[in-house]
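re: ur question from earlier - yeah i can do the single chain one, its not a big deal. heres the input i used so u can compare w yours
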Amino acid sequence: GATWRAANGKAAAGMAFKATSRFDAAGIADLAAGSSLDAADLWHLNSLAQPYIKLLPEPWLSLWGTIGITYDKVNRGLYLPYTFTKEWDSYHNEVSTTPSTDGEEDFPTWSFDLRSDIAGATPSGAFRFRLSRLRRDWGMGSGSLALSASARPFMGLEYQFRPSEIFSISHLVGSLGSWEGGSVDRSLSKDAQGNYTGITEQKMFAIQRLELFPFPWLTLSANGTMIGGKRLELGYLSPMMFAVEYQVTMSDIDNMALQGDFQILIKRLGKLYGSVFIDEMELSNWEEWFSRPRNMFAYQGGARLAVPGLPFGLFTAQYTKIEPFVYAHYPTWTNDSRLRVDTSYTHDGENLGYHLPPNSDELLLRLESDLGSGWRAKLQYSLIRHGDNSDAAYAAGTPLIYGDVDKYQNYSNLSAYPNKDFLHDGIYDISHSASLGFAWRPAGGAKILGSERPFELGFGYGLAYTSWVDGTGGGTPVPAPRWQHLIELSAAIGF
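and the output i got, formated as tokens:
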């Protein structure tokens, strides 16, 4: 579908387009009935024009790169609970006295989308490598606890060794940051002790993954992850050593975590899977493992099953729990930086792992099917429960159970924190969300500039009800329940 292709087939260039718009259906109905709502608050737009070049210099090597231009009007409130993710890089721009914005204006502004991919493999496939800026998913379920497809794209060097049918080793080192934290990075005021108080989000990420295949129907895996300040640390570049092992014996300043997974394939039916993510753990009595807040776990289990009688029907049932303080981490000092480094498990302000904040759980049910003639459909329901305590209490240093990736534990006062008590240790929001989506992609695509391009149209409807409750029983006022009725329209050419 490229606009231009070399005669030898080793180079191509083209342009792809996509746009997604969301509307507040209930708000539009109220506006039509004479409400004084601001029409600009009732719609959201993401659009992308993506010129690209693709090279295939050797059979084992491919290169692809783009600098896309987005044109967006951002409204984070027009997403179902906890589903928002940024679809652009850097600040938005407008021709005015205030040229930089986060896109949340009454009118569209433009920004960038930077992607690239260099990939190669040996003829046998025993060794693969990739240097890319993409979204990634290293997991077995619908969204990984360690590295999820919902995480923002980042530049990373990854490679995989599979010298045997019995095991494989994968490794990734990535470069993280946050354009929204740029002003904080440059804040160089000093505290009473003369230390700089700014915090930089210039950090790096490493993950190692060992997978075992003892039987054709069974996969076992173990991950080690690291978040730390940007520096050339050779131990984090080695695929033969888990970062947590190296950190404990050599530096002890970075944010480490471990994860274990399993997957069981059931012939002609589907698969069962489970995962446990250990962010931090103190050696305590067994009865305290799931009560003391320094024991930071996340876990996930589910099934993906074929649906008899439904064309390519796939049913997913999954439960995910993110314990308090998981993914949160205090800023750390490094020897080569004037500023502390934000070592929370985030990139560009969003989780690297599962998209839920700490102190949350989710029940997810999803049904997908190909309906024929280019049509696909998806029906989904989720129940999300999330608890937190106020920003004011956190700023005052009050030891409570918090549910925000930016609210980490105070290690100088660990004994003062109360036990975890899900649904009873804070203010909880409880969200029921349902969505129905259809997509149509004709077999012939669309003919543009003399070549056939993949072409897709999409329609979706989302419904959500969120209520709040004071789980502590302390009588704290909570927001009124909220309904959302959302309509989504999308189009894509060349993707």
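The chain has a mean pLDDT of 91. not sure if urs matches, ping me
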